[in-house]
Amino acid sequence: MPVGRLCSLAATLLLGLLLPGLLMATGSGKPGVCPQLPVDRNCTKIDKCQADGDCAENLKCCQGDCGRVCSPPNEKPGICPSVDLPQLGICEDQCQQDSQCNGVMKCCRNGCGKVSCVTPNFSAPPPLA
């Protein structure tokens, strides 16, 4: 197989691996991260939403034991930075909510469909603690 075709094939495979993560990171979701919802094993599984856009105001569509529900997000000040390319390395959730991140760091999408603690962008200086 010629080197040019091999490189083209490798580039296509790499793009196929990276593109789904990019699409998930650039979705039209609302800011913030879903909270850890209370455990409820005695319920009928019913999805009350499919996406953040189905929820009023700033509520997010979050997965619970009984299905997807609209819930207020856990959120610190600041805006999660945009992700141009997925992070390289281990693709796993490192946090579930902003309160699990040190200092002013926020729990944000990292580009591979997971979340990690990152330094947010501030349109105004953060409040002094």
TrEMBL record:
<dbReference type="Pfam" id="PF00095">
    <property type="entry name" value="WAP"/>
</dbReference>
<dbReference type="GO" id="GO:0004867">
    <property type="term" value="F:serine-type endopeptidase inhibitor activity"/>
</dbReference>
<dbReference type="InterPro" id="IPR036645">
    <property type="entry name" value="Elafin-like_sf"/>
</dbReference>
<dbReference type="InterPro" id="IPR050514">
    <property type="entry name" value="WAP_four-disulfide_core"/>
</dbReference>
<feature type="domain" description="WAP">
    <location>
        <begin position="73"/>
        <end position="121"/>
    </location>
</feature>
<protein>
    <submittedName>
        <fullName>WAP four-disulfide core domain protein 2 isoform X2</fullName>
    </submittedName>
</protein>
<keyword id="KW-0732">Signal</keyword>
<dbReference type="GO" id="GO:0005615">
    <property type="term" value="C:extracellular space"/>
</dbReference>
<dbReference type="InterPro" id="IPR008197">
    <property type="entry name" value="WAP_dom"/>
</dbReference>
<feature type="signal peptide">
    <location>
        <begin position="1"/>
        <end position="25"/>
    </location>
</feature>
<feature type="domain" description="WAP">
    <location>
        <begin position="27"/>
        <end position="72"/>
    </location>
</feature>
<keyword id="KW-0646">Protease inhibitor</keyword>
